[in-house]
Amino acid sequence: MEKTLNRIHPVSDPEATYFLQVSWKQDLGTGFGIILSDGQCAWTGTVSEAEISREAADMEMDRQKYVEELKKALIAGEESAGKYNFAIS
User: Fold this and answer.
1) What's the pTM?
2) Which UniProt keywords apply (predicted)?
3) pLDDT value at residue 78
4) Which of 5, 6, 11, 73 lies 20 to 30 Å from 33 when distance is taken between CA atoms?
């Protein structure tokens, strides 16, 4: 299983620091686990392959292109800094 851990500063609270861990087995397109932490609390979830396909279809986006954008937003880290915004609600 592969994992990445990135520090994010959400646009909804720019002074806050969160940590985003994403873990996957084959590739992000087959589903992944996610942990978001503010250093005191942690929230976990999973995203299934079917949910990824459904979201890509809802956005009228090619599934592979959608998975590539997920990779850039969730696991690319410093390479994508400033290109993606996160909002915590």
Assistant:
1) 0.83
2) DNA damage, DNA repair, Nucleus
3) 62
4) 11
Tell me how far the alpha carbon of residue 66 is from its chain's centroid: 12
Based on its alpha-carbon atoms, the radius of gyration of the chain, rounded to whole angstroms, reads 13
Query: How many other C-beta atoms lie within 10 A of the C-beta of residue 87?
Result: 8
User: Mind listing the domains of the chain with CATH numbers?
Assistant: 2-80 (2.170.210.10)
pLDDT single digits (tens) 17-71:
999 999 999 889 999 999 999 999 999 999 999 999 999 999 999 999 999 999 9
Amino acid at 34: I
pLDDT at residue 76, as a whole number: 77
End-to-end, the C-alpha distance of the chain in Å comes to: 29
Nearest CA among 60, 61, 65, 68 for reference residue 28 = 68
Burial class of 10 by CB neighbour count within 10 A (0 to 12, 13 to 18, 19+): middle
